[in-house]
């Protein structure tokens, strides 16, 4: 091994010393921090360098004295917003059923609100066994003419024309899944004369033709400035549940929904849907949904529930607002599960037929759908029994008259 001479060692030390000094600013150096930041004499240095003075220096580490305790731990990321609680976290969706449903939707060129709205329950709903797995199909494309601050569906002033094959393709997809209950929703189409009501009604009609026993829920737009005829078109099309969401309390509505969507008009849509269906000999349930965590107050939730009951709404759901992207409105708070239990009890005490309330509950919620399915089937079975009894009574009366 080649030996180093004392002269070579001294030269190396000197070189290392020069390298260190070239990148350091000694405390005795006449070059002040203000000069290093291009600040004039006596001026406060830029904050990015002043921050360095608040922490430990190189001398603190080499002095041999104990280091001072840190005042608090370092927290990375944005700490101004509430953190996502563990009860709102869901696993990544997987499984054969999930894959099969996704393939059917792609093959038939159908959109779902599950994907467009980034629903956290997509794995649970799409991953069930055949006959229980379900997807909420979104009609009229994936571009909405509204721009609600909570919704991640794409917005466009002039969406493309409707797909004339969509009603048939939707009915075909649903018939493959062998479901007992299906939810349809849609984007708003303010660019159309009827807001797309005829398209929705046609889809419901074709679904009933292919699957007569299936129950259909339609989560509809508000058809603002279209009159009441579009509501009648949908409410009397053969659907079983007419759903329209108020989304939030009256005070928060202008800040949460598109300005064209008003709290009072949504109530009127729900009220008229029940009335026009009854007038046309159709039995339907009406349903609405409220998001919590957008800045609402307790008394305002009570008021919203009272308004829904006055509009003769049968079903209400409560769920947590979850910010889909950083471009959307912020979450005001994450509501604890115990509060959802409270609102369920309050709503049931006010006379709602069914209430689904929980952090991950959405307007199209599978557990709620099973309950509504059973209610409708029991009601219709009872109605059929009454009709049979009435017919038997009429026949008996005629027989008595004939004998007399």
Automatic annotation (TrEMBL):
[4Fe-4S] cluster 2 binds at residues 144, 148, 151. One of its GO terms (cellular component) is mitochondrion. Pfam families: LIAS_N, Radical_SAM. GO terms for molecular function: 4 iron, 4 sulfur cluster binding; lipoate synthase activity; metal ion binding. [4Fe-4S] cluster 1 binds at residues 114, 119, 125, 364. GO terms for biological process: protein lipoylation. Its cofactor is [4Fe-4S] cluster. It catalyses: [[Fe-S] cluster scaffold protein carrying a second [4Fe-4S](2+) cluster] + N(6)-octanoyl-L-lysyl-[protein] + 2 oxidized [2Fe-2S]-[ferredoxin] + 2 S-adenosyl-L-methionine + 4 H(+) = [[Fe-S] cluster scaffold protein] + N(6)-[(R)-dihydrolipoyl]-L-lysyl-[protein] + 4 Fe(3+) + 2 hydrogen sulfide + 2 5'-deoxyadenosine + 2 L-methionine + 2 reduced [2Fe-2S]-[ferredoxin]. It is an enzyme of class 2 (transferase). Residues 127-353 form the Radical SAM core domain. This is Lipoyl synthase, mitochondrial. It comes from Apiotrichum porosum.
């Amino acid at each position: 091994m080649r030996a180093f001479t004392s002269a070579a060692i001294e030269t190396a030390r000197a070189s290392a010393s020069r390298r260190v000094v070239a990148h350091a600013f000694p405390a005795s150096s006449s070059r002040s921090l203000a000069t290093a930041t291009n600040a004039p004499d006596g001026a406060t240095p830029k904050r990015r360098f002043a921050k360095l003075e608040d922490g430990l220096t190189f001398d603190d580490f080499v002095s041999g004295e104990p280091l001072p305790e840190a005042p608090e731990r370092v927290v990375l990321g944005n700490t101004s917003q509430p953190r996502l609680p563990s009860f709102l976290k869901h696993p990544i969706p997987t499984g054969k059923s999930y894959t099969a449903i996704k393939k059917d939707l792609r093959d038939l060129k159908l959109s779902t609100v599950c994907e467009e709205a980034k629903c956290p329950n997509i794995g649970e709903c799409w991953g069930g066994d055949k006959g229980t797995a379900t997807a909420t199909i979104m009609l009229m494309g994936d571009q909405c003419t509204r721009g609600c601050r909570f919704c991640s569906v794409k917005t466009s002033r002039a969406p493309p024309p409707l797909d004339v094959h969509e009603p048939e393709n939707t009915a075909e997809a649903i018939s493959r899944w062998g479901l007992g209950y299906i939810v349809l929703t849609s984007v708003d189409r303010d660019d159309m004369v009827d807001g797309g009501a005829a398209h929705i009604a046609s889809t419901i009609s074709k679904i009933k033709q292919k699957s007569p026993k299936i129950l259909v829920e339609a989560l509809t737009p508000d058809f603002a400035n279209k009159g009441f005829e579009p509501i009648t078109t949908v409410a009397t099309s053969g659907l079983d549940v007419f759903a329209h969401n108020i989304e939030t309390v009256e005070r928060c509505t202008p800040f949460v929904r598109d300005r064209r969507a008003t709290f009072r008009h949504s109530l009127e849509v729900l009220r008229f849907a029940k009335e026009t269906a009854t007038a046309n000999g159709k039995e339907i349930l009406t349903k609405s949904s409220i998001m919590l965590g957008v800045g609402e107050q307790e008394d305002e939730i009570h008021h919203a529930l009272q308004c829904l009951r006055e509009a003769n709404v049968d079903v209400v759901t409560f769920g947590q607002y979850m910010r889909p992207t950083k471009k959307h409105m912020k979450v005001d708070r994450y509501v604890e599960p115990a509060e959802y239990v409270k609102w369920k009890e309050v709503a049931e005490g006010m006379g709602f037929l069914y209430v689904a309330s929980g952090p991950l509950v959405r307007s199209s919620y599978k557990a709620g759908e099973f309950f509504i399915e059973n209610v409708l089937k029991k009601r219709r079975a009872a109605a059929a029994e009454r009709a049979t009894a009435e017919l038997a009574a009429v026949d008996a009366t005629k027989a008595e008259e004939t004998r007399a």
